[in-house]
Amino acid sequence: MEDELAAQGLFIDEIHRLRILDPSLADQTHKLKTECDQFLQTTKSFDKTVDTFKNEASRTAAAVEIEKKRAIGYRLLLDSLRKKKEQDQRQMMAEVDRKRLKLEQLRVEIEMLQKADHFHQEILDQFQMLH
């Protein structure tokens, strides 16, 4: 009888109900639906993970960009300070050179004054000897 019903496209399942679809096909369809639902859940979970990753990557990229700009600013500041230090050093060296030159001029002047003083002293000594 089941073969006659099957020939007509009717089937009897395990609890003896009349079905239009073959019970093995119905089981496979149900199993496929369950697998599809699991696949959709996995896909949704993956999408959430990807979105979380994208958001975190965006935040990290923004933080990196801020730090990059900060580093560039510090580098420019450091370069500026280095140039100022070099300029100050050149000015100090120029001032030292001016002071050395002035010192040398004063030494020469002292020598000349000492020689003149010595010369005047000799003249005074000779003058006192004559009188």
TrEMBL record:
Subcellular location: Cell projection, Cilium
Chain segments annotated as coiled-coil in the UniProt record: 78-116
Chief place where the protein resides: other
Signal peptide stretch: none
Keyword list, A-Z: Cell projection, Coiled coil
Cellular component, GO annotation: centrosome; ciliary basal body; ciliary base; cytoplasm; intraciliary transport particle; non-motile cilium
Keyword Cell membrane recorded: no
InterPro entries assigned to the protein according to its UniProt record, in alphabetical order: FT20
Gene Ontology BP annotations: cilium assembly; protein localization to cilium
Protein name per the record: Uncharacterized protein
